[in-house]
Amino acid sequence: MVKTHHCKLTTWKPSAITSISVHSKSPYIIAVGREDSTIEIYKRFQFDRYAISYVLGGLKFDGKVLKTIWKQFKDSNRLISVTENHIYQWDVDSMSQIQSLSSFGGDIINVALSNNGEMLAVASSSMVVHIYRFDEDDGLVEFSKSFPKLTEGTLKCLAWSTDDKQVIVGSDSDLVGYSVEKMQQSFNVHSSDITALCIIDEDNVACGHAGGHITFHELKYGSQISEIKQHIAAIRAMVLVNGKSIYASGDDPTLVRFTQDSVTHRWYLDGLVRSHTHDVLAMDTNKDSLFTGGIDTIMLATNLECFGQPRNKPTKYKSYPSASLMSVGSSESGQSFMVDAARSSINIWRLGDSDDSVKSTKNMALINGIHLPIAKEVSKMIQFDIKDKEYIRAVAMSPDATTFAYCTSRATRLYRFDPAAIKVNRIKVLEGGDIIKFTSNSKNLVIANSQSIVNYSLENDTLSTIQCEQSRDSKIIRSAINSLAISPCSTTSKGAAVYAALFDANAVASIYNLTEEKFIINLPTNFNSSTLHFHDTKLYIVGSEVIVYDVSKLKHVGSLQFPRSPKPTTAITTLNSQSLLFWNQGSKLFKIVDANKPQTIEIKTVPNQIYSAGVTQDQQVVICSLQYKDQVFPQLPPAIRLKVFGRN
């Protein structure tokens, strides 16, 4: 009989989407900024779906991400992220921050990148628009000059003209054009409550307003040409596609397409979709899809070719906690515990137990949802907030449930856990990492980041460091780590090798020998997202397919194709020391019956929206899910309700 704990205990909740930016050179890479200051990097995964490759940022005292901007500097990919007080620059190839810029004479309202990629226009709450440039040598942002201060209104948004000769600014009272060459106003016309701008061509701009209407202006004198209205509340986001269609949305979350007539040059309604439940705050497009997001925390991808058609249902991308934010262990008495994290909060739970003395439930596999009578209920034992400035990247509990740890980018903190006394004591502070995990014998803690692997011995209070090796292929750069697996420690052969495998944001699986403290091999893949798992010395690399690699023999020993599944695997657990269970956020569980001969996959139906899973020493399976309908949607703020014919 398999005991399965299905937990909905997480205090982590998704954050509103405040920025979406599609990579200009690689249209299947998307940066999604959120209200909690984090940035999710999505890459196309399989079957035209996207998956999170890595999460950047996340500071306890930082504000929401106002803007994300992709920037190409020489041969490297850069990402500019903007909050109310800072401009950050990230090297996307290594997923590391390379610049933090502050002091703008007030809070940042909005930022726009020039079309030639050489300048940033920054609108501040002091009513001044500043120009920043990128240094030619290192690509860092540096101040250049400022336009004269606006004397009336409040800045709301800004954009560059197509020839970069003007910066167009929208305020709550005026539409203003600034000449970059003369550093003075080129026009200033009254246009109330502008909330969004969209440059159409070198001569025209579209302005979204708080009243829900869109006005069109020429850029020489700022004169209004026409007006169109479909929304009943403020426009927050607009984007131009193919030079002839504008997509717009906002506080009224209806996605609307306006198209310009090729003969009369008038704009007309050309389709609408209401897929979001709450305010839409951000949007961008690639050649296939319109990506939108806002208060409801879900990113939607809507097909452009079939926009507005009844059968064109958008693909939903819900945000879930990282699988590395949950870990389980069990004490000598058989009691199971779980530690989970939510940004800057740690929770330790004592999991429930069942009365398995009921004869009718003997030998029943609870994976299929058969419930046992409860003998002991779940209870929260400890909760505390960390003092670190950064958000928690990963947590880990030792298999024997005596210790646990959490890591940020700067520090890893190790604690002794006493369930009888219900207390924790910090015993060690180590270097930071992207992900952490205990060995199967609970004697070592492994910390992995893009530069090194640290193996800390709890028994001897010693640590060894293995520098992360670069591949012989110079194009492969060691990047941030998003998955870690450690081979089981042998209980029969003393001194047997223990291996660690890492998967980074550049889709490279790297294998290390922890016992001999050496790098073994890099295994490049074509996976944008992957989960790793060891079964003895066989490493399972799971992405759009399953690759099996025997690390002791340095040999590829098999591969498997999943049946069509639109959801990436989030966790892998071993069942009865033989079967492997592959969990994803969908309602299908894939099971390999014999891990030593991975030839066939069984499919079972399970609860969906699972973001993590684990198994205790006594083979109790713990799965964690975040149910949007029950746990997320009821906590969202009120939204505008529209009467839809036939539904109200």
Automatic annotation (TrEMBL):
<protein>
    <submittedName>
        <fullName>WD40 repeat-containing protein</fullName>
    </submittedName>
</protein>
<dbReference type="GO" id="GO:0032040">
    <property type="term" value="C:small-subunit processome"/>
</dbReference>
<dbReference type="InterPro" id="IPR001680">
    <property type="entry name" value="WD40_rpt"/>
</dbReference>
<dbReference type="GO" id="GO:0034455">
    <property type="term" value="C:t-UTP complex"/>
</dbReference>
<dbReference type="GO" id="GO:0030686">
    <property type="term" value="C:90S preribosome"/>
</dbReference>
<dbReference type="InterPro" id="IPR015943">
    <property type="entry name" value="WD40/YVTN_repeat-like_dom_sf"/>
</dbReference>
<dbReference type="GO" id="GO:0000462">
    <property type="term" value="P:maturation of SSU-rRNA from tricistronic rRNA transcript (SSU-rRNA, 5.8S rRNA, LSU-rRNA)"/>
</dbReference>
<dbReference type="InterPro" id="IPR036322">
    <property type="entry name" value="WD40_repeat_dom_sf"/>
</dbReference>
<dbReference type="GO" id="GO:0003723">
    <property type="term" value="F:RNA binding"/>
</dbReference>
<dbReference type="InterPro" id="IPR046351">
    <property type="entry name" value="UTP4"/>
</dbReference>
